[in-house]
Amino acid sequence: MRRRRSLASQLLVWQLVVVTLLLCAVGALTVVQLGSNFRSNEERRMLSVAENVAATNVVQTSMGNWRILAAPAETARSLSGASYVLIVDARRIVIASPDPAQIGSKLDTPTTALDGKAWVGTVDDSIEAHVPVFDEQSRKVNGMVIAGAIEPGLFVGALNQPVDVLRYLAIALVIGVTGSLLLARRVKNQTLGLEPHEITALVENREALLHGIREGVVGLDGQNRITLVNDHASDLLALPEDAVGRSVEELELNDRLRDVLTGRATGVDQLVLRQGAVLTVNRMPIEGAGAVVTLRDRTELLALQHELDASQHATDTLRAQAHEFANRLHTIAGLIALKEYDEVTNYIHQISSAQDQWRAEVSSSIGDPAVAALLIAKASLASERGTALRMGPDSVLGRVDEALSADLVMVLGNLVDNALDALSSLSTNGAGKWIEVGVMQLDDEVQVVVRDSGPGVAPELAEEVFRHGFTTKAASHGERGIGLALIRRACLRRGGSVSVTGSVFTARLPW
Question: Quick one: DSSP state of residue 454?
Fold first, then answer.
């Protein structure tokens, strides 16, 4: 298995590659610059040598005598350090040269010196200067002097310069390596000693964890901008695709959800409504880094809780009926013991008459068996609590489908229970405590109206009780307003609504 290189070694290698390439580029530019400077200096030096030789009296007066001209040409070459000094006559015949074999040969090099103009340039591998030689008396061009220096290679010329290029390049290389080592060490400390593949694995594991868990997770920075969000949270909150990087205040969220996400509403297991679902939200601040918010969908859990509550209510109703039945039996037994037989007859007739009247009233107005059974059972519970339960004068409902029947049972049951809880704190009894239930079947919806003799909901809380899921009572385990939240969810799911005005709750459930 191939061994992975550490982050420090990878950084060191790449830094060395970058430093080496940079130094090579600097070295190449330096060598080119030095070569250019060398050619410029040599051109000026060769021009000066050629001008000095062409200006001597011996050269100007002895152009035809090669024996005389050889001495000044060789002297100039030796003193100047030039590679060669040639003297050529007007016919381009070489008459003085350090190479004897070249004397008498014809020079074909292009030049302007024989036209009276000095010329400097490169011929083959040499830097040459051509200077015309004028006749001392007639001032005509009798020939020319050529001073040349063989051009060394670029690197040889650079090494011969006063500045030691290699020394400075070596110093720069040492500085680059040292800096690379320090940088690698610092990066390793900042990454807690983790190697690149380990960092990649951590990121992949985090992404898999965030998107794999069943809870929604939202990360916020110090300005309440979303820094991360997993798929489940995006679905629960119905966030847009560009939510990451945007502030919570910019998103289309309700006020309650904004308060919880930003920390204005504190506490654990905060209940919020979003897209008809009941969410449990917890916010954990992180000092200096923002906060992490977790979300859970409690809709199904609350539905199960509601079913349990319905079972509990049924049990309470049966218990109330049993308690009421036991009290009536005790009364009848007492009257028999007192031999008040006429009173026994009147008492039994009175009881039967009241029950038959309520059953008849419910049966005549409500045609759905489930809703009718609920109202008959709630009457016994209300009676035990000293509250009168009565039907609204306009109540009428036929048989409906199972889904609507279940929603009506849930809505009516919770509204009646809320009304009983609201009246439980009142001191009045009998006629002073009553609940009126109205169920009207219209063309396209069923309207449920529940009113009671209690103080009602304050106007400023008329929206809060549904949006926040709160009521004015404290429920068990510190939870509040679960029933109202479920009522609103059922109404919104059907495209209806629920509202409250004082002590009157009105729910609309379309067919």
Answer: S
Q: How far apart are CA 208 and CA 467, in angstroms?
A: 34
Res. 33: pLDDT tops 70 = yes
Locate 183 and state its tokens: 């940088």
- DSSP count for the chain of H helices, then E strands: 14, 15
What backbone torsions phi and psi does residue 474 show, to the nearest 5 degrees?
-95, 125
Q: In which residue are the tokens 């008396």 written?
A: 137
**Average pLDDT of the residues in 414-419:** 89
CA angle 258–264–265, rounded 5-degree value: 85
Q: Which domains does the chain have, with CATH numbers?
A: 7-159 (3.30.450.20), 215-297 (3.30.450.20), 358-510 (3.30.565.10)
Tell me what percent of the chain is helix, strand and coil, each rounded to the nearest 5: 55, 20, 25
311 is written with which tokens?
């079972």
Please state, in angstroms and rounded to a whole number, the distance separating the CA atoms of residues 248 and 258.
7
Residue type, position 46, single letter: M
Interatomic CA distance for residues 462 and 467, integer angstroms = 9
Contacts of 218 (CB under 8 A, 6+ apart): 226, 228, 229, 233, 237, 261, 292, 293, 294, 295
Average pLDDT of the segment spanning 149-178: 65
Asked if residues 465 and 481 have their Cβ atoms less than 8 Å apart, the reply is yes
Burial 282-305 (b: 16+ CB within 10 A, else e): ebeeeeeebbbbebbbbbeebeee
The answer to whether residue 222 scores a pLDDT higher than 90 is no
- Give the amino acid at 447: Q
The answer to whether 125 and 116 are in contact (CB under 8 A) is no
Amino acid at 153: G
On whether the pTM is more than 0.85, the answer is: no
What pLDDT score does 452 carry?
Answer: 92
Reading phi first (left if > 0) and then psi (alpha if -120 to 50, else beta), residue 276 is in left
pLDDT in tens, 189-221: 777 777 666 777 777 776 666 666 778 889 899
Confidence of residue 436 (pLDDT cuts 50, 70, 90): very high
